[in-house]
């Protein structure tokens, strides 16, 4: 195993190691004592024309082969000589989605990836990306002024960070719930505006809230919807030409029967009140 490790280290330290097409190789070392170098592969982050991206164009550096001991703070420090770094984010794999990303949570994000990762380094100016692509090394990750914890010291630090602060956790939960309630309220208001309104072709979108339908099952609401649809299609199409027209005719007839039934009930109640109703 030791011989295999020495052999791989010797191969990594050889000059002229090829990099993937379109990438530039930057050697890094964990410390000054380390002789073998590890290589980061970098290029400017680009997306296809017409595709949205969460990262600003011409100011984002995409980094491959980031080792586990290299944190976001380390990458920011390593690339800071190229220009002011705005943000750094590590991920398990490249971000292919075009939807806007939600801000990272300190408490509810998944467990960090233990293996190699990719990184997105955002500079404040496009010149930072150009300077990082031609950056020469090797760069040192752990220095005396900025030591990187490893071994038991890193385990102790991870355990201390795992102990949550109740007040900070409460603030983050409250902030998340406020944003969630606001989004749900906006969705419900939009659905209420579209409730019972037919589209250009006359179709009415019916959704459900639990076990109750969105459209109110009252005679007045049914008559209003049916009347609007009938007026739109009266001059355009033949009556009862399609199957859906047969269904709507039946629904309209049923609504009229319900209306007549309610009127008869009111008439009977009025006659009873006047003591003139004699059924026998």
From TrEMBL:
InterPro entries: Nucleotide-bd_a/b_plait_sf (IPR012677), RBD_domain_sf (IPR035979), RRM_Rrp7 (IPR040447), RRP7 (IPR040446), RRP7_C (IPR024326), Rrp7A_RRM (IPR034890). Its main location: other. GO terms for biological process: ribosomal small subunit assembly; rRNA processing. It is found in: Cell projection, Cilium; Cytoplasm, Cytoskeleton, Microtubule organizing center, Centrosome; Nucleus, Nucleolus. Residues 162-280 form the Ribosomal RNA-processing protein 7 C-terminal domain. GO terms for molecular function: RNA binding. Residues 1-25 are annotated as: Disordered. This is Ribosomal RNA-processing protein 7 homolog A. It comes from Canis lupus dingo.
């Amino acid at each position: 195993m030791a011989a295999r490790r020495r052999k791989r280290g010797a191969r990594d330290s050889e000059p002229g190691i090829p990099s993937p097409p379109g990438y530039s190789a930057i050697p890094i070392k964990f410390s000054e004592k380390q002789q073998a170098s590890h290589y980061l592969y970098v290029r400017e982050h680009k997306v296809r024309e017409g595709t949205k991206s969460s990262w600003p164009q011409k100011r984002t550096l995409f980094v491959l082969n980031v080792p586990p001991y290299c944190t976001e703070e380390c990458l920011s420090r390593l690339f800071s000589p190229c220009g002011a770094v705005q943000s750094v984010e590590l991920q398990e794999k490249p971000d292919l989605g075009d939807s806007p990303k939600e801000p990272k949570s300190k408490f509810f994000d998944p467990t960090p990836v233990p293996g190699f990762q990719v990184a997105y380094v955002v500079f404040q100016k496009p010149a930072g990306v150009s300077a990082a692509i031609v950056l020469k090394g090797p760069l040192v990750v752990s220095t005396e002024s900025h030591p990187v914890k490893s071994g038991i010291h890193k385990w102790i630090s991870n355990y201390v960070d795992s102990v949550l602060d109740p007040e900070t956790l409460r603030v983050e939960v409250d902030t998340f719930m406020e944003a969630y309630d606001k989004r749900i309220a906006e969705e419900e208001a939009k659905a209420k505006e579209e409730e019972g309104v037919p589209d250009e072709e006359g179709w009415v979108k019916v959704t459900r809230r639990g076990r109750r339908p969105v459209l109110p099952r009252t005679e007045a609401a049914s008559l209003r919807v049916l009347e609007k649809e009938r007026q739109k299609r009266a001059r355009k199409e033949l009556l009862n030409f399609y199957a859906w027209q047969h269904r709507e005719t039946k629904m309209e007839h049923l609504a009229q029967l319900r209306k007549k039934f309610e009127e008869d009930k009111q008439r009977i109640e009025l006659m009873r009140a006047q003591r003139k109703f004699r059924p026998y």
